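Proteins fold reproducibly. Look at a sample protein:
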Amino acid sequence: MSTGGIATGHAISPDSGEHWAAEGAWRVADGIHRIPLPLPMDALKAVNVYVVEGDEDLTLIDGGWAIPVARELLEKSLKSVGYGFGDIHRFLVTHVHRDHYTMASVLGSEYGAEVALGVGERPALELLNNVGELDESPFLAVLRTAGAEEIAELWAAGNDGKLPDPSDWMTPDRWLEGDQSIEVGRRRIDAVHTPGHTPGHFVFADQAEGVLFSGDHVLPTITPSIGFTVPPADQPLGEFMSSLARVRQLPDLRILPAHGPVAPSTYERVDELLAHHESRLDQCLASLRARGSVTSIVVARDLGWTRHERAFAELDVFSQGMAAMETKAHLELLVARGQATSIDRTDGVVFTATT
């Protein structure tokens, strides 16, 4: 969801001087290029893959979505700066979502490149590789806990029954556990665990270069989805805000995001994101006070969505489900702060304000 500023759909990136999703291998810094790859069925338009030159090979931050058009563009863009798939030594993947992980999984297998992923993503990856054993999408159960039974039914009806391809979701060669430094040629890249958007999300800081490969953790024009993960995390919003505070403890760095333009200051954007979520928490608490004991979807209907503060009813069905789950994450943090209570019922988790 947007948090103000320039809209993602109109943002110009300073490294290219063009719309941030424009095709190319754009030089961000010496030995670092940004390659936007297309995303089907996604309002974000593209995901940024970053190419970091080592002494004799490449490290890629994220891999893109394993679809033919993205693979062809990645190959073309690498060739434009003198490289090919065989030059890739390693993928450092920020998190397990398909627009970040699946191309890394496929190319890593084909070309022998190491794929590294946060160990907190293991449960999700195991679920994806055993989805044939499930009776339905695990997200439907999450929607029901948010009181969104009708949306769950619509999501189920819209599922074409196609199962994930196991070749897109292979186990990584290396699990990242805890903060650590990774040598990339003469560079030292600090891997920093930043759970919230997903449990195993990592950002990668090149402090000498003054840049942060921020994945979906710090985005310049929107805030990432929170609560849209299976198996469900206990306190996704609390973890996300704590992880933002961890990034704020690093030096002020340029943001090299997964979606959107390169941006000048992690400090500025982290402060904006924290303020945004504190405001949403206040709005959720006000809704609970006004409505009494209700499920998350009732509160979600009281909130404005996107940068245009659209009514919940104006959102498409997929976005309504995302909004219900994100609202639930806010309400769960209110419970953790002692400002609300919750109780499980057959129609979902019901929240009540205590203050």
Q: What stands out?
A: The longest strand covers residues 46-53. The mean pLDDT is 94. Residues 266-291 form the longest helix (26 residues). Residues 125 and 169 are 7 Å apart (CA to CA).
